[in-house]
Amino acid sequence: MKQNKHYNIPIFLPELACRNKCVFCNQRNISGTHHIPTIQDAQEIIETHLTTIPTSGTKQIAFFGGNFTGLPIEQQKAFLKLAQSYIHKGAVESIRISTRPDYISEDILRMLHSYGVKDIELGAQSFDNEVLALSQRGHTSEDIIRAAELIRTYHFKLGLQMMIGLPGDSYEKSMHTAQKIIDYKADTTRIYPCLVIANTVLADMYTQGRYKPLDRATATVWLADIYSLFSQHNIRILRVGLHPSKDFESSEIVLAGPYHPSIKQLALSQIWKNRFAEKIKLKKGKLHISVSAEALPYAIGYESSNKQWLRETYGWVAIHTDTHLQYDEFTYCYN
Ligand code: SF4
Fold first, then answer.
1. Considering only CA atoms, which residue is closest to atom 8 of ligand 1?
2. pLDDT 10s digits, 187-238
3. What pTM does this model have?
4. Which of 146, 216, 199, 159 is nearest to 30 (CA)?
5. 274: in domain
6. Using CB atoms within 10 A of its CB, is residue 333 exposed (0-12), middle (13-18) or buried (19+)?
7. Is the CB of 22 within 6 Å of ligand 1?
8. How far, in Å, CA of 192 to CA of 162, rounded?
9. Which of 31, 104, 198, 237 has its CA 20 to 30 A from that of 250?
10. Does residue 315 share a domain with residue 256?
């Protein structure tokens, strides 16, 4: 049975809603928002979105960015009351929030539940305590575990977001974080490569030579392996990389780091390249590869990168579609 498309009505809360100062964070640049929206602002955002979303879709009001449960409790309740009024009217199904692991308690979860919150996303970022400390996250991996377990106990859907390439990070540590997100049974995840944004502590560390971001090729290889691991364990990947924005093209805002507007496409192309490299034996003759129509753009690769690599490696190559194949499958033959 075909599922209704899901729509989030996003209300961004900038870092003003957060008392922490993670080294990489300048929410003002990331969310494009400079002040906490008022209740009236939030209402206008919701109303505007409702006029553009098809009535057949499922809808959720999503308080993104910042640190929702770090807001003063009366402010949280005012936002939630507004969002809940749209649930009562039947205009939206539920509410999602994003917050930090150390701002989750049983009292907070009971309050969120009473207003109709169904999904909680935690910025976990890493399960490695050294990475968390160097990133000045202000919480440990034990805090993530405690919060994740509480959220599951209270029957919310759990999202755990991670970042790659933070200070002190490595391929092994990022894979360990991904494995922990699986072990703690997250329903969803988001994967963000760490960027050096202007006016952050990380920008100072970068200019002083104390931090080196991942280059794009390395980030793509890590993302491909993490993406594959999550897919094998049926963890829904809601996002790879930040939403493309003109701001991120500006070297005054993103000083360094693996920003690319199509970073997800790069990672999916890399997954297909890995598959081909592992399975296709080099033989004499013309190589014909078949994939599903859905997989075709990634099999060919971003800007035909895989096709070019296949030609360099195997000689003559053609990639066809085959309606009998699932997304992850391919067949090949030589003639
Ligand atoms: S907790 Fe989130 S909003 Fe707060 S400083 Fe860290 S990354 Fe930014």
1. 25
2. 999 999 999 999 999 999 999 999 999 999 999 999 999 999 999 999 999 9
3. 0.93
4. 199
5. no
6. exposed
7. yes
8. 6
9. 237
10. no
